[in-house]
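Input/output pair, single chain:
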Amino acid sequence: MKQPKKPTRRQKEIIRDNMFVVNNWFVISETDFYLHIINRNNGKKKMITKYPTRERKTCNE
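Output:
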């Protein structure tokens, strides 16, 4: 397995759009449609889509 890397700015946006806290995740690999990430604390792996279907809710005041 390759060594996990810190996410780039574009990867951080993808992770954030999928409702994850960016600082808790490393990137293992990236494909055309998916981003494979691993948790910094417990080592759990996730495969998230680069094109999330749900919209991110923001607080507008």
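The chain is about 15% helix and 30% strand. The chain has a mean pLDDT of 89.
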